[in-house]
Specification:
With 232 residues, the chain is an alpha/beta fold. Helix content is 26%, strand content 25%. Bound molecules: zinc ion (ZN) (2 copies).
Length: 232
């Protein structure tokens, strides 16, 4: 499924940029984007938005500033008049157009990390963008008159946030992965225990589906199972 509609009529559309998801949230006359995809998919993203008759996006919320989520922020700011919102802890990365480098969590990611240590840092760069910081005072409050709130869900990166829509659907960035069925721990991240406590906070929102930055939606029971298996 690529579209979700909440009980109060807020629509969430998933735009799949090959390996990274961008979500468009519309309702009450507003249009928000959660994440922007990698810069290599700029034309694809613009085409998808125009196909949906979207020429202006009021706000873009970045779940974090890795290149595959923040790559098109500058483009959207310039061409769609978007206010770009990011957790204050990661505003500096956005200004520089540089991803923070998370450590490998899984054994596979740790091998990848060692292999990647000689890789051109340019791979992690993206067009820099002047952010409209997401003030901490706006956290957990309804946003743009929509039934949308932003909550801090650190662990994958220091300023990772999730967007909760109508207490039904949460857009969680890389706080969860939806690529390998049943295993939601992101392969890379700063702090596993922080990730688990972010999962617990997300479950407490009452949402029953969690839409990640990569792969498919994760159900509440799947999150509970992962918490249990990592805590034992
Ligand atoms: Zn990431
Ligand atoms: Zn990612």
């Amino acid at each position: 499924m690529n579209t979700w509609i909440t009980k109060n009529g807020i629509q969430i559309h998933r735009i799949i940029c090959l390996y990274a998801n961008v979500y468009m949230v519309t309702g009450h006359g507003h249009c928000l984007l959660v994440d922007t995809g990698p810069v290599a998919f700029q034309k694809f993203l613009a085409r998808q938005l125009r196909r949906m008759d979207i020429y202006r996006i009021h706000g873009v919320i970045l779940t974090h500033t890795h290149y595959d989520h923040a790559g098109n922020a500058a483009f959207l700011q310039k061409n769609f008049g978007s206010r770009i919102m990011v957790h204050p802890a990661e505003a500096g990365y956005l200004k520089k157009g540089l991803s923070s480098v998370p450590g490998g969590i899984t054994a596979f990611a740790q091998v990848m990390e060692r292999l990647a240590s000689g890789i051109e840092p340019k791979m992690l760069e993206f067009p820099p963008c002047e952010p409209d910081k997401l003030p901490v005072s706006e956290f957990n409050k309804p946003f743009f008159d929509m039934l949308v709130t932003v909550m801090a869900t650190p662990g994958h990166s220091p300023g990772s946030v999730s967007v909760v829509v109508d207490r039904e659907v949460a857009l969680v960035g890389d706080c969860m992965f939806g690529v390998v069925p049943g295993k939601i721990l992101p392969p890379f991240g700063d702090d596993v225990s922080q990730i688990i406590s972010s999962w617990q906070q997300l479950l407490a929102t009452g949402c029953d589906i969690f839409l990640p930055g990569h792969g498919f939606g994760v159900s509440g029971p799947a999150v509970e199972k992962n918490i249990l298996s990592l805590s034992s």
